[in-house]
């Protein structure tokens, strides 16, 4: 692929998926700076590995996978703070200022959810927030569909139990695939 | 609606339009300004040097693009695979990294720095590469000064040679202007200019075609490895000059037709300006060529 073809392809994928990757990062990062880091590093990685980027909707799933790894590295403090453009900081900070997190913070469901293990929380999030089914999650996580099915079943069970302990009746949320 | 969706900070639907926002576009420009890792390094060293210097910091370096922001919320520098723009004193400077890029790429760069300027690079014969073909106000509101210069990097190099890069510079209060500048042509691309092929640095240098017949001229031109195309011209009856009727251009040119001048048409091709009969005065010059062209 020529540099021009790579650039055109990357621009198309970027435009198509930017909002979804930004959403993924914002739903998981406590601060706009962290979300901007994850978005920037995810797309920078995609550009470096453009030849490996799959076509169609699989590009989005692949990018979720990159974002997931980036986020994990970020949490481990392994990603240096990116030198991002000021415009990106401004845009994402503005989006954060619009979201009334205070209400969600006090919510028992939110707190219980946050106390789940990273793996359980990520699986349930991919279903509830990104609207992915088992096959799509398998692609994001690089595991078999069967493994997703089993892990998701266990995650749902643990979440229900945690909610019950917190005095919340378990609903059917995040219990079914989207 | 499930409860987990409700506790999400944001829904993708709430982010509609973010991809075209300034932040997303700045990030995109900064990322693609770098070579993707597996891309073959075919570019001359000089052109990848700015990137190579920054590559030490890897991912961080991938995002050095429009990072400085002025009071208006626009960047004061911009870099993409097509163009780099930065500020020096009271002038915007830009380096054309890809003269064949879509004009939209240049427009994107100038928009990112908040400058209302459009730039078109047109295929030009060698002498007109780097020449300003056209500049002026775009009729849509604001306009400003347009002091605009074209330079070379390294200084004074021939813009037609591979290691030579075009630099553009214009005042920071330029607004509402458009510029057309000559760039090297690709094979089979018609030149936008009509440079004479018969002057010193032309492809027929040393050979005159004016007032000769097609029969005389064509073998001489073909001997030089060049191809011929024709433009059939109609001399203005009462005055200097000529017109060209597009409908007549498919007419077959006879061997006895008269040639008045030769122009560069494209790489390896010259255009002969011809009429089907002889006139008293060369219609291209309103008289003998020597009165006008002093080589």
TrEMBL record, chain A:
Q: Please state every residue range assigned to the domain named RNA polymerase sigma factor 70 region 4 type.
A: 109-158
Q: Which SUPFAM superfamilies match?
A: Sigma2 domain of RNA polymerase sigma factors, Sigma3 and sigma4 domains of RNA polymerase sigma factors
Q: Which Pfam family, an example, fits this chain?
A: Sigma70_r4_2
Span of domain RNA polymerase sigma-70 region: 14-80
Query: Per UniProt, which keywords does this protein have?
Result: DNA-binding, Sigma factor, Transcription, Transcription regulation
Instruction: Report the family membership.
Output: Belongs to the sigma-70 factor family. ECF subfamily.
What protein name applies here?
Sigma-70 family RNA polymerase sigma factor
Source organism:
Actinomadura alba
Automatic annotation (TrEMBL), chain B:
Q: What is this protein called?
A: Tat pathway signal sequence domain protein
Q: What is the organism field in this record?
A: Actinomadura alba
């Amino acid at each position: 692929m020529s540099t021009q073809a790579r650039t055109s392809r990357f621009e198309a994928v970027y435009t198509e998926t930017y909002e979804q990757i930004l959403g993924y990062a914002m739903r998981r990062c406590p601060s706009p700076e962290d979300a901007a880091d994850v978005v920037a590093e995810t797309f920078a990685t995609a550009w470096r590995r453009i030849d490996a980027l799959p076509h169609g909707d699989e590009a989005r799933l692949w990018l979720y996978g990159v974002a997931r790894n980036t986020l994990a590295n970020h949490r481990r403090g392994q990603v240096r703070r990116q030198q991002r453009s000021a415009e990106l900081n401004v845009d994402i900070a503005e989006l954060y200022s619009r979201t009334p997190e205070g209400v969600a913070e006090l919510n028992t469901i939110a707190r219980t959810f946050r106390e789940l293990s990273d793996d359980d929380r990520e699986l349930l999030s991919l279903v509830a927030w990104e609207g992915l089914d088992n096959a799509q999650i398998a692609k994001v996580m690089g595991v078999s569909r069967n493994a997703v099915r089993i892990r998701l079943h266990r995650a749902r069970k643990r979440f229900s139990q945690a909610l019950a302990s917190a005095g919340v009746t378990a609903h059917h949320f995040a219990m079914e695939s989207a | 609606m499930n409860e987990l969706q409700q506790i999400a900070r944001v829904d993708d639907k709430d982010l509609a339009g973010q991809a075209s926002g300034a932040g997303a576009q700045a990030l995109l420009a900064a990322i693609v300004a770098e070579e993707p890792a597996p891309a073959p390094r075919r570019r001359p060293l000089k052109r990848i040097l700015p990137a190579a210097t920054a590559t030490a910091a890897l991912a961080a370096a991938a995002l050095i693009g429009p990072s400085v922001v002025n009071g208006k919320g626009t960047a004061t520098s911009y870099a993409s695979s097509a163009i780099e723009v930065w500020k020096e004193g009271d002038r915007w400077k830009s380096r054309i990294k890809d003269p064949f890029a879509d004009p939209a790429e240049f427009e994107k760069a100038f928009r990112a720095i908040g400058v209302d300027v459009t730039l078109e690079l047109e295929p030009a014969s060698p002498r007109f590469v780097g020449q300003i073909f056209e500049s002026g106000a775009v009729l849509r509101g604001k306009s400003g000064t347009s002091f605009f210069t074209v330079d070379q990097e390294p200084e004074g190099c021939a813009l037609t040679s591979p290691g030579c890069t075009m630099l553009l510079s214009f005042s920071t209060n330029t607004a509402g202007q458009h510029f057309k500048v000559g760039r090297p042509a690709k094979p089979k691309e018609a030149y936008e200019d009509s440079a004479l092929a018969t002057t010193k640095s032309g492809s027929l240098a040393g050979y005159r075609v004016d007032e000769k017949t097609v029969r005389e001229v064509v073998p001489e031109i073909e001997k030089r490895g060049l191809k011929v195309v024709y433009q059939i011209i109609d001399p203005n009856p009462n005055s200097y000059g000529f017109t060209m009727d597009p409908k007549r251009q498919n007419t077959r040119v006879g061997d006895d037709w008269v040639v008045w001048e030769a122009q560069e048409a494209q790489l390896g091709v010259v255009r002969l300006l011809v009429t089907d009969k002889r006139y008293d005065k060369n219609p291209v010059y309103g008289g003998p060529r020597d009165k006008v062209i002093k080589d």
